[in-house]
Specification:
With 156 residues, the protein is mostly helical. The protein is 67% helix and 8% strand. The protein contains seven helices and three strands. It has helices at residues 3-26, 36-45, 53-60, 64-76, 98-119, 127-142, 144-155, and strands spanning 51-52, 80-84, 92-96. It has a three-stranded antiparallel sheet with strand order 1-3-2. A hairpin with a 7-residue loop joins β2 and β3. α3 packs across α4 (64-76). The protein starts with a helix and ends with a helix. 13% of the residues are buried.
């Protein structure tokens, strides 16, 4: 297997494995009432008190309407609270309850374990290369539409 095939195999399988493992690791008995998607919304809300519905929807790449559906469920289950701005009633702030913070930290811990596993066999000199490589991959995904037109020329 050449380097291209090996990298392709690792990346394709890694994405599926991360999604599957994350769901198993994050959605435990304690958090069985929410989905992995809900957990990512909790992550996007974060620990501050100034997240708005529109900001979280933007971070998640979804519409405010889609977020509202998930948010209604998270509020009902006690993970999130909503409040309207006193200055502008159109603005809805969302923040995590204590239960939501617990879920946030649980999810964050999974990510910390994943990053530690990726870094544990690397030397201090190798870490910047891994960071640059992953950043290049992230830039590709964020700008996929632009890359798609160039990609066939790059591969040949």
């Amino acid at each position: 297997m050449d380097a291209f095939e090996m990298i392709n195999d690792v990346l394709v399988n890694l994405f599926y494995e991360i999604l599957e493992l994350e769901e198993k690791a994050v959605i435990t008995d304690e958090f069985r009432d929410i989905s992995n998607n809900d957990m990512h919304i909790i992550e996007a809300i974060g620990l501050g008190n100034d997240s708005t519905m529109s900001a979280v929807a933007r971070r998640q790449g979804i519409t405010a309407g889609s977020l509202t559906t998930s948010m209604n469920s998270l509020v009902k289950k006690g993970y999130v609270v909503r409040s309207r701005s006193e200055q502008d009633r159109r603005i809805v702030y969302i923040s995590l309850t204590e239960k939501g913070r617990k879920a946030y930290y649980h999810h964050e811990n999974f990510h910390r374990e994943m990053i530690n596993a990726a870094m544990k066999n690397l030397s201090e000199e190798e870490l910047p290369l891994l960071a640059r490589t992953l950043n290049g991959l992230a830039v590709f995904f964020r700008n996929y539409g632009e890359y798609r037109e160039e990609l066939p020329d790059r591969i040949s």
